[in-house]
């Protein structure tokens, strides 16, 4: 009997160590990125290999999503529980890069229903304040063979001679040189949220996604956020009612707070999700604002609020 005791003790020791390790190593933040596609935008020349890793953990970096359609999908190492009572019902913190002007991003959540640890179940959109004003469209951005030219696009196949702001009017140099090279590195066969191809208009990259109403208007001599718009439910939304100071790493940082209970299906019906495992964040506004160029969301991190400790309260 004594000989059998040692293996039992060892076995229980390993079991306890494994459980303890799991508890210690669970992170409040995103631990991995399953997909990332930069949207056509002014910062393409700054996007380098590994850009998506800026969303992992709690660092001083941030990930550039680019213009409308650009997105990133992240995963947690645990299921984020839909907390009804804690923190006014908020469950997730979406930390933006830190700025002044709203560049709203649409938020989607997913539960790992089939338990395969892959983001291949159903996405549910977080219903924000502008949900009733949004539309789902397909935008094709066309490569301009003239590197000094602008990026031409169509919305649902309709063209009205629309162009993204020409590079000569911005500070980044020839548009096709800094907007397009990133897409040549992507394997579109393995990407769910974007596609590429050729038609009679040329070579394109295409996104089908939610398009939100404009977030800015020109007033006097500058572009300003439209009052009483984007009140809650979006990322990088500095004027939102859900924008609060919450823990971040060893410090604090402002974030948009998200309630999983605001999830809806593709028909707009409420969906109850006990927990979620994946999050998708996507630039939602298609608008070019003069010298500011396009609206393009930048996100620093995402956290499970329930794991940020108990020594803080919403103000």
Topology:
Layout: H1 2-25, E1 32-37, E2 63-66, E3 71-81, E4 92-96, E5 105-110, E6 124-126, E7 135-142, E8 152-155, H2 175-179, E9 195-199, E10 202-211, E11 216-219, E12 222-225, E13 243-248, E14 251-258, E15 263-264, E16 275-283, E17 297-304
Summarize the structure.
This protein has helices at residues 2-25, 175-179; strands spanning 32-37, 63-66, 71-81, 92-96, 105-110, 124-126, 135-142, 152-155, 195-199, 202-211, 216-219, 222-225, 243-248, 251-258, 263-264, 275-283, 297-304. The chain has 315 residues and is mostly beta strands. It has one domain (27-307).
Description:
With 315 residues, the protein is mostly beta strands. The chain has one domain. 9% of the residues lie in helices and 33% in strands. The chain contains two helices and 17 strands. Strands 1-3-16-5-6-15 form a six-stranded antiparallel β-sheet, with no helix packed on it. Strands 2-17-4-14-13 form a five-stranded antiparallel β-sheet, with no helix packed on it. It starts with a helix and ends in an 11-residue tail after the last strand. 38% of the residues are buried. Mean pLDDT is 85; it is low at 1-23 and 167-172.
| Number of helical elements | 2
Tell me the structural class.
mainly beta
Tell me the domain tally. 1
Largest sheet: 6 strands, antiparallel
Radius of gyration over alpha carbons?
22 Å
How do the strands of the widest beta sheet line up side by side?
1-3-16-5-6-15
Low-confidence stretches: 1-23, 167-172
Proportion of strand residues: 25-35%
Which overall shape is indicated by the principal axes computed on the Cα atoms?
globular
Secondary-structure element order, as H and E? HEEEEEEEEHEEEEEEEEE
Q: How far apart are the termini?
A: 61 Å
Percent helix, as a range, is under 10%
Mean pLDDT level: 85
């Amino acid at each position: 009997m004594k000989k059998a005791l040692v293996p039992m003790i060892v076995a229980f020791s390993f079991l306890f160590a494994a459980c303890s390790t799991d508890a210690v190593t669970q992170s409040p933040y995103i631990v991995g990125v399953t997909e990332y596609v930069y949207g056509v935008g002014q910062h393409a020349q700054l996007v380098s290999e590994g850009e998506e890793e800026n969303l992992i953990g709690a660092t001083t970096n941030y990930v550039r999503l680019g213009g409308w359609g650009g997105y990133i999908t992240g995963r947690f190492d645990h299921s984020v529980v839909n907390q009804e009572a804690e923190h006014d019902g908020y469950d997730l913190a979406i930390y933006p890069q830190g700025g002044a002007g709203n560049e709203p991003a649409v938020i989607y959540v997913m539960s790992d229903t089939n338990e395969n640890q892959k983001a291949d179940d159903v996405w549910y959109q977080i219903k924000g304040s502008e949900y009733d004003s949004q539309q789902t469209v397909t935008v094709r951005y066309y490569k301009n063979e003239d590197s000094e030219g602008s990026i031409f696009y169509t919305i649902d196949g309709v063209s009205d001679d629309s162009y993204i702001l020409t590079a000569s009017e911005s500070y980044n140099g020839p548009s096709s040189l800094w907007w397009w090279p990133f897409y040549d590195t992507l394997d579109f066969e393995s990407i769910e949220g974007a596609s590429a191809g050729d038609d009679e208009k040329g070579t394109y990259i295409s996104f089908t996604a939610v398009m939100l109403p404009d977030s800015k208007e020109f007033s006097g001599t500058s572009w300003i956020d439209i009052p009483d718009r984007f009140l809650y439910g979006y990322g990088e939304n500095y004027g939102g009612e859900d924008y609060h100071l919450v823990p971040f790493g060893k410090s604090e940082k402002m974030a948009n707070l998200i309630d999983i209970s605001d999830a809806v299906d593709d028909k707009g019906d409420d969906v109850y999700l006990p927990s979620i495992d994946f999050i998708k964040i996507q630039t939602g506004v298609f608008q070019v604002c003069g010298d500011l160029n396009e609206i393009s969301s930048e996100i620093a991190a995402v956290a499970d609020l329930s794991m940020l400790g108990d020594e803080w309260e919403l103000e």
